[in-house]
Amino acid sequence: KAGVTQTPRYLIKTRGQQVTLSCSPISGHRSVSWYQQTPGQGLQFLFEYFSETQRNKGNFPGRFSGRQFSNSRSEMNVSTLELGDSALYLCASSSRTGATEAFFGQGTRLTVV
Amino acid sequence: QQQVKQSPQSLIVQKGGISIINCAYENTAFDYFPWYQQFPGKGPALLIAIRPDVSEKKEGRFTISFNKSAKQFSLHIMDSQPGDSATYFCAASKNAGNMLTFGGGTRLMVKP
Question: Is the Cβ pair B46, A107 closer than 8 Å?
Answer without folding.
Answer: no
